[in-house]
Amino acid sequence: MKKSLxxxxxxxxxxxxxxxxxxxxxxxxxQKNMNNTTILHTANAYVSKGDYExxxxxxxxxxxxxxxxxxxLNGKEEVRAYMKEFYIEPPVFDVELAIExxxxxxVTGNIRLKNKxxxxxxxxxxxxxxxxxxxxxxxxxxxxxxKP
Length: 148
Known about the structure:
six-stranded mixed beta sheet
């Protein structure tokens, strides 16, 4: 009996997480008239709250993230693993500029990330985001650590 209740509880939990991500994605579909810059800011608001699954609902399944000179992430699973490793706490963004041109949004600004020792590291960034049908398909990120 206990085993059945545990299995049912786990299934309900999994269903609830999936339903929430689908709800967020459906909200995006309802807002189809939003431009890509607005979609990006909406998705990044979830990152700021630590809700990475809702952010990932805004990405294509084969999303590709290129951190120039550092690493390449292919697909949602690799992005999810990256967020789990590097976003110990939600990052703090300071967007300076966002420029949209067709399927591309270029964003510049500053980001703070808490490292494994509990100290914040500060970076300047320039991100070039490519969209497909209102979803994030690719990121090319130029990130430079600020020196004290």
